[in-house]
Amino acid sequence: MNRFPFFLTVYSLFVVMNISCGHSHDAGHDHGHDHEHEETVAGHDHEHEEAVAAHEEHGEHEGDETELTAEQQKRIGIATMEVATKAFRGVIKVGGTIVTSPTDAATLVAPASGQIRLAGSLVEGAKVRSGQTLFTINTEALSETSNATRTSLALEAATKRLERAKSLIAERLITQKEYDETEAAYTLALAEHKAATSRGGSASSVGATMDGFVTALMVRSGDYVNAGQALATVTRGQSMLLRAEVPERHFANLSDIVSARFKPSYTDKVYDIDSLGGYLMAREAAAQQNGGYLSVTFSFRGAGSLVAGCYTDVWLLTRDRHDALCVPTGALVREGELSFVFIQEDATCFIKREVRLGESNGAETEVLAGIEAGDKIVVAGAPQLAIAASARVIPGHSQNHEEAPQAPPLPSPKWGGRKPHPGPPRNGEGGLK
Q: 176-197 and 144-170 helices cross at what angle (nearest 10)?
């Protein structure tokens, strides 16, 4: 009996059964895996969309938003404060000059005409005492008659000018300054005439009228001087003036100015008018003809290190406003002509907010619009936040959400978990054995 056809039939049936079983198993496995993968990807996409929507909803009402973890905030030194209304004093920065107070200086004049001699080694800066002789004037060569006549005519003219000035000042047709100059000229003419008509000898002496320092010396030994000519200025140094020159654009703020600080050009020390016992002396009502500036003058007690006539930087202080909303100047971030602050929304979220500024005193700046009392702003670390905001980067957090990870590839079919049958043995020529 030939058994080969029978063997072939059994082998074929075995192979068919294995293929059917393996296909059925793999189909169930693939279906279950695909279903599970689809659910996983769908779930991840849903969570991803919810996270993006929540993030957009959180920032859509503010715009520029930056997030920092507590560790990041500590590392870059973030510090915040709550904004509140407080008393605030604004500042107008201008230039000015320190001058000698008229009440603290005296100008010495020649009582008669003649040749002058300086007493001792008199120089500018020398310390003098009241009554100390500083000059001697030799009048021997002068004709007493002609000198008396000249001084008499000068006194008569000065008297007429003074009488006219009295009537004009009463009608407010001349200024107080013009009247004072006329009165001073009359006083000098009177002194000159008295000296010319006196019989006191051929020499006249001039002494200091107060204790102080010679701040100006107008003559030298051997010079010929006329009666009434200025010889020197003696200053006590106890009272000085600060004259600040204010541009016309600040005219509306003049009435608010109450005090000042100043720094002379030769030092870095800043002086305070209040600490020097000073006070606001005068505000100029009309702008100067040259340059369009208004003068504000303060009187203060002189200090030994202050030099009259020197230029100084001046910070004019305005009166206190008790309801001003102000922030530390270091909290401001400037971008061109615009100014911003960072408001802390929650523990990790910071919002960049534009503000409109008012006056500043250097340490603090008044905010007119953009924030309200109770807002918590960043007062340290704002530059780092500005860099992050301008780059549209949230430190420690990525706005570009990564795509959902792909499921690993499905395993290749394993024919029902069994190895395929190697089949019947074959001979070397490819035929069946």
A: 160
pLDDT in tens, 32-87: 444 444 444 444 444 445 444 444 444 444 457 788 778 877 887 888 888 888 88
Give the tens place of pLDDT for each residue, 267-321.
Answer: 888 899 999 999 998 887 666 655 678 889 999 987 767 878 889 999 998 888 7
Residue 148 in contact with residue 197, Cβ under 8 Å? yes
Q: What does DSSP assign to residue 205?
A: E
Structure tokens at 337: 């002509």
Compute, in degrees rounded to 10, the torsion defined by CA atoms 48, 51, 52, 54. Answer: 150
Q: Are 234 and 208 in contact (CB under 8 A)?
A: yes
Q: Give the separation between CA 33 and CA 305, rounded to whole angstroms.
A: 92
- Measured distance CA(271)–CA(263) in Å, rounded: 6
- Supply 321's token pair: 């406003």
Number of other CB atoms surrounding residue 185 within 10 Å: 17
Q: How far apart are CA 165 and CA 169, in angstroms?
A: 6
Write down the pTM of the prediction: 0.46
Secondary structure of residue 227 in the 3-state scheme: coil
| 81/76 Cα distance (integer angstroms) | 16
b/e per residue 350-377 (b: at least 16 CB within 10 A):
bbbbebebebbbeebbbbeebbeeebbb
- Asked if 231 contacts 136 with a C-beta cutoff of 8 angstroms, the reply is no
| Cα–Cα distance list, 348 to 22, 216, 340, 394, 396 (Å) | 57, 67, 19, 10, 10
